[in-house]
Amino acid sequence: MTLPQLTGLASLVALDHPELVAPPVAAALSRWPGAERIAVVEIDPEHADTAAMSAAYDLPMTAGANCVLVAGKREGEERVAACLVRADTRADVNHTVKRLLDVRKPSFLPLERAVAESGMEYGGITPVGLPAGWRLLVDARVPEMDLAIIGSGLRRSKLLVPGDLFGQAPGAEVVEGLAG
């Protein structure tokens, strides 16, 4: 098995380096079939945001995937979802996510709450290791990616995930048209 690589960065087997990922991410990786194919790379935390990383490491935006957290209510019940979309697209929160969550008005989870409840750092939030009860919506284009660069739960590293693994991620719902 060949581990995913990025030019100029040392790829390590993510399962073997829990110190490079947030604790909930390490726990989730240990339960994810195929996780031995996932690499972790250390980066400058100043380049954790997708656009900054793409510029600093000369990567196309199409190589990254972003995770946004969305919540809404219906009849007093809150519904939360993580939406994983290619970095060159945006989650269709006002139509597709609203319909899938069956809520009146979806909105992005406030930063402080996203960090506190996920156990991850801002700029490193990832769909791997999210709290139980949160849905994982994956745009259908993500599993088609050869390699998706996503957060590790920490700003100082990124996960390199073969795209096909997202179709098999625990709890993942692959959605056509999640992003535009």
Task: Describe this entry's structure for a reader.
With 180 residues, the chain is of the alpha+beta class. It has helices at residues 23-31, 50-56, 93-101, 111-118, and strands spanning 12-13, 39-42, 65-74, 77-86, 107-108, 135-139, 147-151, 157-162, 172-175. The chain is built from four helices and nine strands; from the N terminus they run βαβαββαβαββββ. The strands form two sheets. Strands 5-3-4-6-9 form a five-stranded mixed beta sheet, covered by helices on one side. Strands 1-2-8-7 form a four-stranded antiparallel beta sheet, with no helix packed on it. GO terms for molecular function: aminoacyl-tRNA deacylase activity.
Task: Set down the secondary structure blueprint.
Layout: E1 12-13, H1 23-31, E2 39-42, H2 50-56, E3 65-74, E4 77-86, H3 93-101, E5 107-108, H4 111-118, E6 135-139, E7 147-151, E8 157-162, E9 172-175
Parallel strand pairs: 4-6, 6-9
Antiparallel strand pairs: 1-2, 2-8, 3-4, 3-5, 7-8
Protein name: YbaK/aminoacyl-tRNA synthetase-associated domain-containing protein
GO molecular function: aminoacyl-tRNA deacylase activity
InterPro entries: YbaK/aa-tRNA-synt-asso_dom_sf, YbaK/aa-tRNA-synth-assoc-dom
Write a short abstract of this structure.
With 180 residues, this protein is an alpha+beta fold. Helices cover 18% and strands 27% of the residues.
List keywords for this structure.
4 helices, YbaK protein, four-stranded antiparallel sheet, alpha+beta
Work out the helix count: 4
| Low-pLDDT segments | none
Average pLDDT taken over every residue: 94
Tell me the CATH topology: YbaK protein
Give the percentage of residues in beta strands: 25-35%
Q: What percent of residues adopt helix (DSSP H or I)?
A: 10-25%
User: According to CATH, what is the class?
Assistant: Alpha Beta
Q: Name the shape in a single word.
A: globular
- Give the tally of structural domains: 1
Order of helices and strands: EHEHEEHEHEEEE
State the oligomer.
single chain
- Strand segment count: 9
Distance between the termini: 34 Å
- Write down the Rg: 15 Å
Structure class = alpha+beta
CATH homologous superfamily label = YbaK/aminoacyl-tRNA synthetase-associated domain
GO molecular function: aminoacyl-tRNA deacylase activity
Domain YbaK/aminoacyl-tRNA synthetase-associated: 45-163
Protein name: YbaK/aminoacyl-tRNA synthetase-associated domain-containing protein
